[in-house]
Design a protein that fits this description.
Strand content: under 5%
Largest sheet: none
Order of helices and strands: HHHHH
Number of helices: 5
Radius of gyration: 27 Å
Shape: rod-shaped
Structural class: mainly alpha
Oligomer: single chain
Length: 140
Amino acid sequence: MINEEKVILMTKLSTYEESTGKEDLNKARFFQSDYVRLNCLKTLVSTTILFWGVAAMYVYYNLAKVIENLTTYDYGKLARNVLLAYVAVCVVYFIIAWLVYTYRYSKAKPGLIRYNQNLKALIDFYDEDGHTIKNSGRKR
């Protein structure tokens, strides 16, 4: 005989796993601090690649002007300004990434708590040998 409570729990678990649960369960593999740090590190790497790519495109686009003024540049000041711009961009993106990933992790937490509660309730339907308990579906 089919236990309706068990089927409902299994349906809830399956629905969650197929929808937002994929991402949430992936986040649950980490502690919050590790998840946020890892994604902030990814953001910093991406920001670095993007910044230097944009800088290279700017130089390439203005190559004639750069070559024309090659001997008149103050390279110390230029390097300082470029590095300050790079640090500013990295700090801004780091703060944004920290806020976004902290929010995403905290948003996933209630769903994971419900998922774990439903999973424990489903486990309660089985005895130590893995057989379904026939009466009410709960251990006594």
